[in-house]
Amino acid sequence: MPKLLTSRRVENETELARQYVKTHILFPSVLLGFVMLLAGSAGLIYQFMVDTYGWQTFLESTGLLMVGGVVGWGQTRYHRYLLREHPGYFAGRLKTFSQSGPKRAKKESLSRPPEHRGQPYVPLFYLAGVGAVLSASAVSAVWGHVYPVAAFLMPWAGFFWAKMYGWRGVISQGARTQQEGKRR
């Protein structure tokens, strides 16, 4: 009997974690990626209409998308690891966000990130990723051939779109598993 309850609890945690990913990671990534891509493309179109737009501008804007995409891919890989190995972390965050009032303040202080081998380096990787995106934007805007608005927005568009594509298979896999469970 205990194995049945433990199995049910793990399935529930995994489903709550998938729900957290859908609502707090995937949906904002899609929305922000679309806005950043639209605004960055508008900046490039403005540059094409007003000033010169050559191969160098095309290559730099593509490179900016790639830099953001690599950083987004890295963050998504880490979050997928957390979902696979520690689904309770995301499930706990969803439970915390669903509570309001004084209960939420008490629960937030209790939630800690999961412990794993590379835990001390995670903040450094986050800072390195943000630094890479901002550095690439600054270099391209100051010494490159891309206008500053497009140079700032294009890497973030790549970042959010990489996150969206990185979660695509995981979320659809969860939906298939859930549908199979309902059929039984």
**Low-confidence stretches at least 5 residues in length (pLDDT < 50)?**
none
Give the H and E element order. Answer: HHHHHH
Shape: elongated
Structural class: mainly alpha
Number of strands: 0
Give the radius of gyration: 20 Å
Largest sheet descriptor: none
Total domain units = 1
What oligomeric state is this? Answer: single chain
How far apart are the first and last residues' alpha carbons, in Å?
Answer: 20 Å
Which percent range describes the beta-strand content? Answer: under 5%
Mean pLDDT: 84
Query: Portion of residues in helices?
Result: over 70%
Tally of contiguous helical segments? 6
Detailed description of the structure:
- The chain is mainly α and 184 residues long.
- The chain has one domain.
- It contains 6 helices and no strands.
- The two termini are 20 Å apart.
- The model has no long low-confidence stretch (mean pLDDT 84).
Question: What is this structure's SSE topology?
Answer:
Elements: H1 2-50, H2 55-85, H3 87-98, H4 102-110, H5 122-142, H6 148-183
Helix pairs in contact: 1-3, 1-6, 2-3, 2-5, 2-6, 5-6
Key phrases:
mainly alpha; 184 residues
